[in-house]
Amino acid sequence: MYSNRCTERELFSLLLSLGAMLHFDDYPTLGQPNGAGGDHLNGEYQNGDHEGTNGEEPNERTSLLQRAHQAIHQHIATPALGQASKSRSTWFAEILFSLLFPSILASGTMIMLLTALSQTLADGNSPMTVPVYLAIGFLSVLLALPIAPVAHRIHIGASFFLALVVFTTAIYSLTAFPFSPLNPLKVYAQQTIDLDSGINKVHLVTLPSLNLYNKDQPPLWYSLPSTQRQPVFCSSRSKEKDGLGSCEWPGLVPNVTLDSTRPSHWIKSSVTKIGRNVARFEVQGRNTRSCRIYSDVPMKSVRVEGGHWENGSQTEEEFNEIRLWSRKWDETFRVLVAWPDNNGANRTGKIACEWAEWDLGKIPAIDELRTFLPPWTVVSKLADGLVEACSNDIDGHLDSTITMRLMRSQYDFLKNHWQTGGGTFLGVTGGLAESCATIISIHEYLKPYYKSLSL
């Protein structure tokens, strides 16, 4: 039994020694710096010299365990010297090409992105519409990828210092106040006036935490003199801006015209129903170049006399708002609007004009905001105008009884009579001539809509 165990142990040691020597022979040129090719640590196993460490000639009784351990040690230690030398020689190139240049590019792009999108969400934009977090996360991954191949070689002290910097900056970013006079918060404001009822309101739109009462600080509007004796109505959600809240209160009457014209005379408008689904608008604002038409029922098409679309062509989708712009002051807008056939007969809406007077004394409510709000805020327009005056003229004028079918038949009759009567059209009485001219003018406007009105 004892001889069998010795035999198994010697066979195992022999196999281990042969394997180590075979692997050891694969590196004949690796050795100490002061040795020639094929030299090893102490010159053993060189050129067939297999004498033991004690100078005795090995025979069948010589133990193989000591030689196996020596061979394994020489095989492991000797190539390690070459690998370490190789790593030191390529260390600088690896850092330069795989770490330094990509990190500089990714970090520069991230700094530019953070500077550009720092107040995107505070300005009332949805995180899904403007992918702020997604863009920052993607660039963070690009910044970390070049470091991954050499991360295990970074000293533990450098890793600890980097983690400390990240932790400190994160705590500061979460606790420090985010706005300053150099990086102010944009506060949206607009004053609306209902010319029919005389209701005058000032709207302030900003972050909900700054518009509502908090334990730490009062709302922004609390420092305004006009809100001390007036009721203030606030909502945590604004219709105009995503993620922002709005507050409104009665304000001072603005002076947006060049004279002391009463607000009820700021807008001149008329609405005439000239078909089952067609109406003609005439809008003129005093001392303004911008007006709007709002409809509670979606509109299908619109045509402006002497005008064109800002983007080149009319959209095919239905819309509830028409924005009118002019290069001249006090311009009269003449607009034809058509509604779809299947949206009902009751159509309501309003006509409005915009003013954006930043001069001191023109809009007292805006002057009050700019004076009494904190220095880390800046006032901006909620819409195209700082003041919007509106009139509900659409509600009372779209029930006119003039029909498109009757006007077209009158137009065809008068046109044929004028062509066959040899100029007798000029002899018509004044009242009839005026009616004919009106019908002809309306017909020219409505040519594009004949096919879509089911006459």
From TrEMBL:
Region feature (Disordered): 33-59
Location of the Vacuolar membrane protease transmembrane domain: 46-154
Keywords of this entry: Membrane, Transmembrane, Transmembrane helix
Residue stretches spanning the membrane: 95-118, 130-148, 160-179
Domain Vacuolar membrane protease C-terminal: 185-388
Domain of life: Eukaryota
Keyword Membrane: yes
InterPro entries reported for this sequence: PFF1_C, PFF1_TM
Entry protein name: Uncharacterized protein
Biological classification of the source: Eukaryota, Fungi, Dikarya, Basidiomycota, Agaricomycotina
